[in-house]
TrEMBL record:
This is DNA-binding helix-turn-helix protein. The keyword DNA-binding applies. GO terms for molecular function: DNA binding. Keywords: DNA-binding. Signal peptide: none annotated. It comes from Mediterraneibacter gnavus (strain ATCC 29149 / DSM 114966 / JCM 6515 / VPI C7-9) (Ruminococcus gnavus). Gene3D superfamilies: lambda repressor-like DNA-binding domains. Residues 28-82 form the HTH cro/C1-type domain. SUPFAM superfamilies: lambda repressor-like DNA-binding domains (SSF47413).
Amino acid sequence: MSLFVNKWKQTVKIHIIQEVHMKFSSTLKELREQNHVTQNQLASHLKLTRSTIAGYETKGTQPDYERLLQIADYFHVSVDYLLTGSETNGISVPPDSSEYRLLCAYLNLSSDSRQQLFEYTEFLQDQDTKKGRMPK
């Protein structure tokens, strides 16, 4: 891999990490203010100093995973929300649906079988397109 590509990947990774730190800082402060919680109150609950909370909010320092869980629990939000400022919109699949059964079957396949399944799925999609069938 070229030096340029490696540098580019490193730069992108650093940029993403910086964005997460900045978003965490603003999300934490916003949650704290919306819930009328002072830095001292949050620090006391988490058994930290006020300056540690201030560091999270202004200096870009970030807590370890255990502390993130405690903060998320305190504000009744997900860790994803703390880090990104939004809840992830994962796909919800009812366990009694054919989609769920298909997903479970897929997850139990070997990587070779998964590749074959992808190829077969593409074949079926092409057939549907040729016949003018649209997905429901």
